[in-house]
UniProtKB/TrEMBL annotation:
Gene Ontology cellular component annotations, sorted alphabetically: phagophore assembly site
Family matches, as InterPro entries: ThiF/MoeB/HesA, ThiF_NAD_FAD-bd, Ubiquitin-activating_enz
Protein name, UniProt field: THIF-type NAD/FAD binding fold domain-containing protein
Transmembrane segments: none
Coiled coil: none
SUPFAM superfamilies xrefs: Activating enzymes of the ubiquitin-like proteins
Gene3D superfamilies (alphabetical): NAD(P)-binding Rossmann-like Domain
A single GO BP: autophagy of mitochondrion
Highest taxon in the source lineage: Eukaryota
Lineage, top ranks: Eukaryota, Haptista, Haptophyta, Prymnesiophyceae, Prymnesiales
Ranges of residues in domain THIF-type NAD/FAD binding fold: 2-163
PANTHER family xrefs: UBIQUITIN-ACTIVATING ENZYME E1, UBIQUITIN-LIKE MODIFIER-ACTIVATING ENZYME ATG7
GO MF entries: Atg12 activating enzyme activity; Atg8 activating enzyme activity
Length: 166
């Protein structure tokens, strides 16, 4: 693919860019499709939710069958859908909860939270661009700090009742 308006665009670099999408909801699904259209071939989803019956009409990577039986994990359903759309994409999924300030962690949850933090840190370190596409400001806090620590390009797009930022 060559771009008439930008003949100097290095499409090989675009294709090799490793993108981490924090959130596989409305924004995550839309951003993933756009990235695929731009030629990005390595997309990783992080989301802790499952596909519900209201999602397929708003989130283009999900279908009704993703809702059945309690719902498929969103990150996995989104990655599978991208692979079905373009089999050469390297789409992967991680179902982890992002620890948030102000949310208590019980002693029973400590090990899981620590493991999720370690996974999140490793994912951010191993990707080139981080997209913060989650529902709340609190869920974007830790990924922002980790991305800054690792010197990663971080893009924030948020729509919600508590924030509107694009």
């Amino acid at each position: 693919m060559r771009w008439r308006l930008m003949p100097s665009l290095q499409t090989e670099k675009v294709a090799a860019t490793r993108c981490l999408l924090m959130g596989a909801g409305t924004l995550g699904c839309s951003v993933a499709r756009c990235l695929l259209g731009w030629g990005v071939r390595h997309i990783t989803f992080v989301d802790s939710g499952v596909v519900s019956y209201s999602n397929p009409v708003r989130q283009a990577l999900f279908t009704f069958k993703d809702c059945v039986g309690g719902g498929t994990p969103k990150a996995q359903a989104a990655a599978d859908s991208l692979s079905a759309i373009f089999p050469s994409v390297k789409a992967s999924a991680h179902r982890i909860a992002i620890p948030m300030p102000g949310h208590t962690v019980t002693a029973a949850e400590e090990d899981k939270v620590r493991a999720d933090c370690a996974t999140l840190g490793a994912l951010i370190e191993s990707h080139d661009v981080i997209f913060l596409l989650t529902d709340t400001r609190e869920s974007r806090w830790l990924p922002t700090l980790l991305a800054m620590h690792h010197g990663k390009l971080t893009l924030n797009a948020a729509l919600g009742f508590d924030s509107l930022l694009v």
